[in-house]
Amino acid sequence: MTEQLLSLVSLTAGTAAIIREFNLSLDNQRRLMELGVLAGTRVELVRFAPLGDPIEIRVRGYNLTLRRQEAERVMVSLA
Amino acid sequence: MADTSPPTHPPLVILTGNPNCGKTTLFNALTGLRAKVGNYTGVTVEKKEGRLLGVPKNEPITVLDLPGTYSLSPQSLDERIARDVLFHRLPEIAAPDLVVLVMDASSLERSLYYCGQVMELGYPLVVALNMMDVATDMGQQVDPEALAKRLGVPVVPMVASHSDGVTQLRSAILRQLKPPPRPVAEVGIWQELSPDVQREVHSLAGFLAAPNRAVSATAEALLILTDEKALADNVTLYPDTIRQRVANVRQCWETAGVDWRLLTIEARYRRASAIRDEVVRETAAVEQTWSDRLDRVVTHKFWGFIIFVAIMALMFESIFRFARLPMDLLTAGVDWLGLAVGRLLPPGDLHSLITDGVIAGAGAVVVFLPQICLLFLFIGLLEDTGYMARAAFIMDRFMSKVGLHGKSFIPMLSSFACAIPGIMATRTIESARDRLVTILIVPLLSCSARLPVYTLLIAACIPNVPVLGLFELPGLTMVAMYFLGILAALIMAWIFKSTLLKGEPPMLIMELPPYKRPSANTVFRHVWDRAMMFLRRAGTVILGINILLWFFATYPRGADLGPRYEALRQPLRQARQTVEAKSTRAGEIEAQLAALDRRENSEKLQNSFAGRAGRLIEPLIAPLGMDWKIGIGLISSFAAREVFVSTMSIVYQVDNNSDSQEHTASLAESLRAQRRPDGTPMYTPLMAVALMVFYVFALQCVSTVAVVRRETNSWKWPLFQWAYMGALAWGGAYVVWRAGHWLGY
Ligand SMILES: Nc1nc2c(ncn2[C@@H]2O[C@H](COP(=O)(O)OP(=O)(O)OP(=O)(O)O)[C@@H](O)[C@H]2O)c(=O)[nH]1
Ligand SMILES: [Mg+2]
User: In this structure, are residues B144 and B156 in contact, taking their beta carbons and an 8 Å threshold?
Assistant: First the structure.
């Protein structure tokens, strides 16, 4: 079973995905994880900001915004 | 009476929880105070103390509100305060006797993560399960009893914004304070850790253990083993032996393939999800809340910006437009008071001091109250609806272009009210450099103290012509000044970020809380408090400066001045006796006498201390088209900007006719009446714009300098800021004045 990994930003608005791995600095990864974004967590890409950056995601029942620059390094697979 | 027992203090109850979960709302309900509340994360950035209401006076209980935090591994200054209080690391704050853990029922899992960390510390604890209404709106039913049973602590369901549950919480607090605290041992994620990890944590805890420690040694051992910064940031707290041990243990774990950094986070969230699944029942599948629907428009690709600009424009236009009538009424009131009091006093210095210095001077500032109220009403609404976070979301792209992030935008918006809360709000910015850059630029945004200056100059000089049929030139000028400040702030941020304070564009992680219906109570209290603050300031600081200024503008009086002018007047008076009243000749003589009076007053003012100071700096501001009288205004507004208005009022009143019983000319009118030596009007539209540009840029606020000094811990940055803003102010006004002339204005 090979699952295809995508980056979080490559999702289209409104799709859900499962977080798989992080290629972030440890500090940033820690912060995201403390906010509940962990490997295996289901997230939904809610929307892109008017100029395409940052993005808004929904995770564990609340909404969070992060920049493309970081979202690119968060790998997901489609749910 | 020797009392040798250690100093006792009232029991300390602290409020802690995630950002924006309602801690301050609850604090206000518990203590009757009015700390600032808003619907975005990072409203509270400082600890704040109050007294619990409803307990006997002789047994007071202290309640402490803290900034919100997502975990005990702080990333910014405000979060650090919460962590330090919980670990009893601040000398001025006692160890907490009880922790009220405020949880957001609508995002329970994230709240449970932090809850787990705090519970392990071992304090007696009460959970305030807030935002029950929001959870219901989202189709979730949270069972407080099940949660209480699962956590083993009392849980009080509440809606803090409606004061629901506050009484129950108060009794729970009192109940939990009474019996000697039962240590909550080895709760939380303990069972989830492998025996090997448990053993290492225990053995490190043995080294940390000391009598009288506030926090469970096990919890602290677990934290410093699994958080790389907990040790690095607090080198002085832990002796070398401990640090060595921690390094060894981590090394062992690494060779065994244990990722110690992430170990606890995953375990905690596993536990949080499990608890959530037990206590939450989804009652309805709510696809989209009204907040989601609203967001589709507010953050829309196209409408998002239109709405943002429209809100800003509406805010500044309406401050200008709707405040006009109440301001006119207030002005009439102040004038009436001046006249009424003036009639009671014999002419002379006292008369002048009271009418020109006190009433006209302070009155000149007080009349701006309606504008201040409107401004704070708008900002209060922006803050309490949740729009602030959306503005940061929309504007983040621009902010990243200048090297900052959207979070820096929130302090910028707050600074339209006042730079000081704006500077405080930068505490939420994680990177020290970005925080500093934001502090440096925030005072460029036009705060409420500039409002009187702009309004006065616009009223006096900018003709009321319609623009594009929809707007009026005065209102547009005002909006232009605000946008100039924003633009300058962004440009300067970019300059600082690419020179002095280079650094990577920071990471942005920010919560977007659901919109809330703004609470009328919160917003109006906010407006009321700010209005009172404004009046108090007008009645104390500004009044004081005015009285001083009146003295400086009146003394010293050249002893020869009076006789000299008297000698000049004498022949004219005699001549008037000989000619027929109402003849043209009599009119001429009257005019000459009046001109003499003006010259005498002007010379008096020139010789006064204030006049001398003004003339001293005149060479510096002459290139900007300003004279020494404006110089007096500029100097005095370095204490506070709005003093410009009252200073000009005093200067022109003293100048005008210090003994006149009837002064009815409004300040704007006396500005318009000012002439340059060559007879042309002093206050042209160009002069007004140059002056306003000066005020947009200059850092004329002692309190801001003091706060920047405190927040940056050095004199270097406030002085630098003062100098660069001063240079901008002078340069900006010079460019306007020169370019205006060149264009033929
Ligand atoms: N619907 C609802 N809103 C609430 C409730 N409690 C507080 N609020 C609102 O939630 C927002 C945040 O409240 P605050 O008291 O400022 O939250 P805080 O925890 O102090 O936030 P920080 O200081 O930023 O950490 C405000 O707009 C409150 O009016 C509640 O029980 N229900
Ligand atoms: Mg707060």
Answer: yes
Reduce the DSSP state of residue B540 to 3 states and report it: helix
Place of tokens 């605290």: B181
Q: Which domains does chain A have, with CATH numbers?
A: 6-78 (2.30.30.90)
Q: Given pLDDT bands bounded at 50, 70 and 90, which one contains residue B122?
A: confident
Instruction: Kindly report the nearest CA distance between residue B275 and chain A, in angstroms.
Output: 13
Q: Where are the domains of chain B?
A: 1-287, 557-607
Q: Find, in chain A, the residue whose alpha carbon is nearest to that of B226.
A: A30
Per-residue pLDDT at A2: 54
Predicted pLDDT of residue A45: 95
Alpha-carbon gap, residue A47 to A54, rounded angstroms = 9
Output the CA–CA distances (angstroms, integers) from residue B18 to B41, B482, B530, B650, in the order listed: 9, 34, 27, 51
For ligand 1, say whether the CB of B129 is within 6 Å of any of its atoms: no
Distance CA B664, CA B659 (A): 13
Q: Is the CB of B159 under 6 A from ligand 1?
A: yes
Mean pLDDT of B637-652: 84
Distance, CA B381 to ligand 1 centroid (Å)? 14
Class of domain B1-287: alpha beta
Alpha-carbon separation of residue B409 from B186, B481, B607 (angstroms): 42, 18, 48
Q: Is B428 in the pocket of ligand 1 (CB under 6 A)?
A: no
CA–centroid distance, B67 to ligand 2, in Å, is 6
The interface residues of chain B toward chain A in range 512-541, judged by CB-CB distance below 8 A, are: 512-514
> Ligand 2 centroid vs B598 CA: distance in angstroms?
57
Q: What string of H, E and C letters represents the secondary structure of B676-723?
A: CCCCCECCCHHHHHHHHHHHHHCCCEHHHHHHHHHHHCCCHHHHHHHH
Among the bound ligands, the one closest to the CA of B103: 1
If DSSP codes are grouped into helix, strand and coil, which group holds residue B282? strand
Distance of CA B340 to the CA centre of its chain: 38
Res. B3 pLDDT band, cuts 50 70 90: very low
Query: By three-state DSSP, how is residue B129 classified?
Result: strand
